[in-house]
Design goal:
Elements (H helix, E strand, L loop, with lengths): L3 E2 L3 E5 L2 H9 L4 H5 L10 H16 L8 E6 L4 E8 L8 E8 L8 H14 L6 E7 L3 H9 L3 E6 L2 E7 L2
Helix pairs in contact: 1-3
GO molecular function, one term: acyltransferase activity, transferring groups other than amino-acyl groups
Pfam families: Acetyltransf_3
Protein name: GNAT family N-acetyltransferase
Length: about 170
Amino acid sequence: MLVLETLRLSLIPCSAGMVQALLYKREEFEPLVMARLPLEYPSPEVAEFLPFLQQQIANHPEQAEWGLRFLRHRTESIIIGDAGFKGAPDFSGTVEIGYSILPQYRRQGYALEAVKALLEWATALPKVRQVVAECENDNLASIGVLEKAGLVRTGIIDNLIKWRLKVK
């Protein structure tokens, strides 16, 4: 699986072994990603998602690149968050992007850097026609990231702003 590289980050695709380690043996995770794992990772939302992700990778290993990626800080060799898509492109060529940065690494441009890398990779593939996202309407940091990444607001549903980047 392809590790995406940016100036400051390595975006490492999540494997079945990585999920297994995060769920049951955290000490086995660090060698798999060649980075330290902060005590506060994963976030409660990601921790809740891990069993589903484990099943998804087991059922469709070829789609792992479209899932969660760990954000490894290249100089500090530490996991600072995650980013990725919520699955492979659907029948219309749509993928949904998401991301999360540990609090101590926020407001330093890491989310935007990761999102731009994922968008560049995904939109170069012929099967991706659009990328969508959503964030809470009071999440100013995410609003800024999505705007700077080139996504456009398409509406608000239940306090969630919907975003879209049309590719083709």
